[in-house]
Amino acid sequence: MSAYRTVVVGTDGSESSLRAVRRAGALAGACGARLVIVCAYLPSRADEREARRAQDQPGEDGYQVVGSAPADDTVRQAAEEAVAAGAGEVEEMAVVGSPVETLLDVVTRAQADLLVVGNRGLSSLKGRLIGSVPADVTRRSSVDVLVVHTTG
What are the residue boundaries of the UspA domain, all occurrences included (predicted)? Predict the structure, then answer.
């Protein structure tokens, strides 16, 4: 089996997601792979009710970045963490959309061969009953998925 060439990792800026970014950065660095860091966000034009509705969506684990500036800051910080962990070539992407759909779309567009996510949401009752980002992408991804243990 050859090493991974393109690794995609999702982040929402939480410490949990940054643990997954650091692991993805170390792995990408060890493989000499390109690392694509993705933050899905809602447009800032979304009114307060729309933002609340998105945060209440099942499977999102209650956190969705709102606005391009916070999303840009999120991927910039994540890129710094990934480089410190060993990543060489890093691409930052802030994309309007839901986390699951965005990650799967970026995996396809980037021709990635590995998707890295944290396990946040897998251990919650809501995550077990309704779904979570890691569970949904693992079930739907066409490439390998690494679920990093980022929460207790």
Answer: 4-149
